[in-house]
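Collaborator request log, item 7. Partner lab (contact: R.S.) asked for a structural prediction of Large ribosomal subunit protein bL32 to inform their binding assays.
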Amino acid sequence: MGPLPKRKVSKGRRDRRRAHDAIGSPKLVECSNCHQMTMPHRVCPHCGYYKGRQVLDLADQV
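Returned to partner:
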């Protein structure tokens, strides 16, 4: 008989141990308006467009 654990490892402890495996580099997608690489589900910081609509007027912020 091989070694056995003394007690059950809780789900929280198990998930904390595995948490660092999921961290990776952020994925990038191409903006449909200016074709720059941006993070998904966010307004493009280069042109201010999101899903084909302008949501930020970057000319005012300059």
